[in-house]
Each structure stands twice: as C-alpha cells, then as structure tokens.
Amino acid sequence: MPYSIKHIAQIISASCAVLEEASIVYLLIDSRKIVFPETSLFFALTGPRRDGHSYIHEVYKRGVRNFVVSQKIDTTLYPNANFLLVNDVLKALQTLASHHRSQFHYPVIGITGSNGKTIVKEWLYQLLQGEENIVRSPRSYNSQVGVPLSVWQMQRQHTLGIFEAGISTVGEMEALANIIQPTIGILTNIGEAHSEGFANDEEKLKEKLQLFTHCQQLVYCKDALPTGNNIEALLNPSIQLFSWSKKDIATVQITSETRLLNQTEIFILYQEKSFSIFIPFTDTASIDNAISCICVMLLKGFEIATIQSRLLQLQPVEMRMQLKKGVNNTYILNDSYSNDLSSLSIALDYLKQQSGSANTTVILSDILQAGIADDKLYVMVANELQQRHIHRFIGIGKVISKYHVVFNNIQQTSFYNTTDDFLQQATHHQFSNDYILLKGARVFAFERINHWLEQKVHQTVMEINLSAMVHNVKQYQQKLLPTTKLMAMVKAFSYGSGSVEVARLLQFHKVDYLAVAYADEGVDLRKAGITLPIMVMNVDEAGFDALVDYNLEPEIYSFNIYNSFQQYLFQQGIQQFPIHIKFNTGMNRLGFEVDDVEILAKQLVKQQTFVVKTVFSHLVASESAEHDGFTQHQAILFNTACAVLEQQLPNRFIKHLANSSGIFRHPNLQYNMVRLGIGLYGVDSANGTELHLQPVATLKTTIAQIRTVKANDTVGYNRKGKVLRDSKIATIRIGYADGFNRQLGNGVGKVWLHHQLAPVIGNVCMDMVMIDVTDIVNVQEGDEVEVFGKHLPIQQVAVWCNTIAYEVMTTISQRVKRVYIEE
Ligand SMILES: *Cc1c(COP(=O)(O)O)cnc(C)c1O
User: Fold this and answer.
1) Residue 491 designated active-site
2) Are 56 and 128 members of one domain?
3) pTM score, two decimals?
4) Is 136 annotated to bind ligand?
5) Where in the sequence is the active site (predicted)?
6) Looking at ligand 1, which atom is closest to the CA of residue 495?
7) Considering 72, 376, 527, 717, which one is annotated as catalytic?
8) DSSP three-state, residue 613
9) Cβ distance 17 to 451 under 8 Å?
C-alpha cells in the first residue's frame, strides 16, 4: 500500500511544498541499507553522535529522492528531490507509523516487560500462524525507531499484529503506545534488565503500563510485579485483566509443576476446571514465557487439546545470528530460524556488512509465507538479492525451482528440489573464500547443510558477541563530547577476538580510526576490505613497503625511524605521506622526548614528505587513582609538545592521549580523539562500576569423559591431583596449548558449569584439563563448560593466574575457533 509523498507531507505536517510526485513503500533510516531507492523515504534522524543530515549527499547519490529533514537544505544541490521539513524527524517517523497503524482494524498484541518479549512474540507467531496471517516485529525491533519500522509493515491482508515495545527510560512508552495501539496487552515481567533509566521498580512498572492505556485485555503475571503494587489501581478500569500466578489466586492459576527430563508438566486451574499441559522446556524463563502464551490462547478461546498439541511443537527461538568459519576459508551465517521476507532482508544486510568485498552466496529454501502469491514473492526475493549484489544463489525446493527464471540477473544460480539433492551433488571445493547465508524453512533441515559446511575442529570455541561490543562502544561514547573522535585498538588480533571481524563491525559503526601494532596486521585488514584509516604503532624498515602498498599510517617515534622512512619515501618519489607523532611523557617505551620537540618541529616544517595527521602520547596509569598526579603531569608535558607543533606546523592535526580507562576517569583529557582498547571487549581495567559494560568474549568447551576416582588415588601428571574422597572427575577439551594458563592447575582456577564453579584438579595438560565435579548433580559427558565469559568474569580468571585480563584474552590460541554472534 504505497503512500504518495504529498499525503505523507500532510500526515507529518511538513512545512514545505512537495515538488515531485513520488510513491513511497519503504522507510529508510540507515544510509547503509538502501535497497529500493526510488520508493524509499529517508529520515535524517539525529542522535548525540550522528546526524542523518550529513548522509543526505551519499543517500541522494545512491538514488533516493525523498527526505524528511529538520534542517534547511540547499535544495539546488539535489535536483528532483523532495525535502519535507519538520521540527523533529523521529517524531515525524512515529507520527507516520501511528497514522498507518490507524488504518487497520484487526487485533494487535503489544508486548512489553523486562525479559522474554521476543520469545513470547515468536512463540505466539508459531502457535497462531495456523489460523492467522500475522505481521510482527522483525527480531527485537522494539525501540523508538524499531517500533515504527515494525508497524509500517502492516498490510490489509494480515489478520493479526504482534509487536514488542522496549524502553530504557521514563517518557518513552507513550510514543510507542501511540504507534502500536495494542488491543491486547502482554506484560512479561518486571526484572533487573535496563534498570538504569528508572528511579525504582515502581516507576519502571508505571512507565511500562502506559502501553496498555487503550487495551481491551491485558495478560500479566501477578508474581512478577514489584511487591506491594496493585496493578488494577494503575490501569484504566475498563481493561479486562487476565492474570496468572504460581502463588496466588488469578485468572489462570498454576497449582503445581513437575519437571521431567526434557519437558515440564504444569497443572492449571482456570474457570473452575483443572487440567495439565506439557511444555517442552525445563528452564524457568521458558516455562514462564510459555504460560504467557497459553493465557493468550485461552483468552482467544482455543480448546485445551489444541493448546496442548501446538505447545508440544514449540521451537526454541534463536535470537542471535551466528557467523562461523566454514571449510576453505568460508564464513557461514546460519539464519534458518525464521523464514520470511523481512527476516531475509535483515540477514542479507548483516551478510553484506560482514562480507566486505568478499563474494557472497545465499542458499534459500522455498519460503512458506502466507499472504503473498508465489510469483510476486519470488520476484521480490530476487530483487532483494540483486540490489545487494549477491554473487551466487542456490535455491532449494520445488516452488523456488519453478520460479528460477526470476533469478536470472544474479551472476551464478543453481536449483535443487530437495536438500538431499543438493548435498549429493555439491562438493566442498565449490565453496571457498565466500560468505554464505543459509536460510531455510524448518522442513528443509538446513542444519544438515550447515553441518556439512562447517569446519570440523575440537569443540572449544571462543564466542565473540558483536552486539555487546557495539554496546560497549556506545557506553564509552557517552562519556565523550560529540566531536571527539574514536580510534579503536585492534592490535594483537583484536585482543584475541579476531581482527578482521571486529574491524568490519567497527567500520560499519563508523569509528574514525583503527590502530594495530605491526604492519602485517594492517595488511590483513586491508586485504579483507577495511577502508578506515589505520595507524601502525611499531614500524621498522622491513615494513615500509607494506605501509605504502596498503595505505597504512606509521607512528613515528624516534629520529632514526623518522629519517629512514623519510629517505625511503624520497627514493620512491612519495610526498605528503600521513604519519603520527608519538611523544614519551613517562611510559619510557617508544616516543620522542618532549625536550626534542623544537628540533622535530624544525625538521617537519622544512619537508614535504610527511603530513602529520595526529600527535599523541600514552598514559602510564590512567586506571589508578594513586597515580592521578602523574597522569596530570603527563598531560602537561603532552600539552607543551603539542603547543610547539601547533605553532610551527602549517596544517592542523588531531591530538590524543587517553586509553580506555583514561576516557572515563579523565574526561578532561579527551583532546580531539581517544584510543579505546580493552573497554571494547567489555573489560574495565579500573574495575569501576559506572560503566555498564557487557563481556564480549566467552571461552567455552565441553566434557569429554567423566569417571569416578576413589579416595587416595591421584589425577594427572606427577600425581599432583590428590583425591581425598571418592570423587567424580570430568576431563574437558582445553589445555595450555589453547591458552588455558598452567597456573590455573591444582585447585587455583575454576570453571563454570551447571550454574556452579568446579575446581581444576591436578596439573593442566597440553590439550586437556581435569575438573572435580563431585558436588555438581546431573553432570554428563558433552556438557558445556565456561572457562570465562558472562558467568565467570575474565578479570577473575586473570586474578587466579596472577596476571591481567589483557594477557588472558590475547593468549587464547589460534586453534580455538572464534564464533561471532549478533543478538
Ligand atoms: C593498547 C594501546 C591502547 C589501548 O589501551 P587500553 O587500556 O586497552 O584501552 C591505547 N594506546 C596505545 C598506544 C596502546 O598501545
């Protein structure tokens, strides 16, 4: 249902005339995600650090002609374009979505709560898709921007909408309520998540309840409310309340539950009838989410037998996109959980973001999506692929094969009727160096393709949570002035996390600079298509060719390296090469002495070979209060050096001093740029509490064998592990060759499994470690063990090893497979 741009101008009360008629189908907020430029409307959203107006030029160049802006634009620069001028671009986006929502009169479920929103939404979709044609939020699109984009997908052919709303501070829910306009509300729970923006739980509850102001019915869990809160008093009295509880009288009362091996039987009292239902999960969160769904089905009048049979088919929701290394240097993005057009488009964006300039392959099954005729659907799919320049397309299924001609514009295509056909005919050598997206409906069992493409390695992996990394960057950015630039330190294989993958993410999120330790690290990044400027900290003559060939910018730290690089460039006839000048202000490692700044300035002034891009120094102890005096002393020396260069050099340069802990402990020392290192990875080296960082790396492995060892026997080399009682000992698949420090042996270190810590027993071996699991029930071979991560902070492991988190991270060996996760 396209809107004319004139109509949109009216809806959002834009204050300038529309010159060119246009019809709008897509709302665009991200210049990197243009797919259908002619029918897209770009909203120039402004945030604290990014101003959408500065992307107008880029977006226009790529064919977009319609814009919503809040600043006057020189329209003569953009022929044939419409600029709708409003006071607040975000409000305009929300107003448009809210208007769109009002056009439809089918039921809409609105979900909020601290946890479980996405799962409840996805499960309701699984449970109700038999009778309804459902439109729902893609993934976790639940923010001030995500909600309008979700609701914009509503169309006439749908019969039910399911949208989630997430807020982080007071005042946000009203806007979301006006956009979603739910007729049925679900409150999952009020927990710890996102508490920072609220004074207390009651304030948070009140804010969340705003979503339900105009609901007819509300499903909620009584037990999850903050104590002493009476929800009825806070809500519009006309709302029909549908409560559930495990402790109290409620519409749906859970009288007891029995956990079985892999399911849970819950006993329900509802409308004076007792019955039980099996839920195919055993963890509390899943049970609670399933009960919310059962309530909605009861509310909608489903028979108990139907509820039971559908519930047993519930599938776990994989909310994360996982990028894994596959055979022949490929990467596999397996996103086979959802199988519809909007999730395809999100997965394709992610694939392109990760692949950089590498080739891309999409393997797609028949799409089982109601509501669009097949011929139209596959034309739309082909369009999505072609717009993103996907190199190779493999279609699997009878229907998609029938429409093979619509994919003719893609470089390389092939089609198979079944997954088996594909697996019989395909060979590994057809797949090398490319990024492969797997997206298949459940019946096509694409996990078999995934398995076939995956590189077989031992089961120790380091998971890198890219979403957590983005979160951490934002935490630090909040401490900076909007104009302060950010250099991300990706040296040492990005502190062990994988340089290329991390650099791609940071490039996508528009950090300003990258820095590596050695030239060859920079070369790897360039080969992977990283175009950001890259500073190389430790250069020597052997690396000069690489610097020039790959456009890498050296740190110049001494007169010796200055002279030899200058001479090298001179011989090559190169001028104006970008360099970074480093001063020693107390570290006594690399850098010019501040006393030499006058001599250095004289040399720089009379030459053309170098351009000074930045001037910097490094803080010795920015994390410790004890040395704050010394830190300020370093800053004074640094200022002295900068002042001389600023006075004498013809061009302006960027100044930078602070590392991660400097950023928030010394906000007065941010100059024009800061260098963020360990903080990216979720480690606060000052051990403070004011930053809400999320751990990025999780190292995990599995149990290979479990045995009982009798009292007085020993475990491991040199009989070091003395067993004092009859014990259950598990061997895990990690050793010092993987980076599991030998100091963790003999009870010093512990690992985390089944919500408990288990001590290491005996010496750490090269490839294996034994742990004592006597006190942990139900441990089985194959169980997962966390070495560090979310539950066992890396800082704790560092303490056990007598070292710092930096060393623990960077010593995880390259044979440990890295898996990248996007939440
Ligand atoms: C590694 C490094 C940083 C980053 O330090 P963190 O403490 O990890 O933030 C900054 N500057 C220089 C010169 C470095 O070598």
Assistant:
1) yes
2) no
3) 0.73
4) no
5) 491 (proton acceptor), 717 (proton acceptor)
6) 8
7) 717
8) strand
9) no
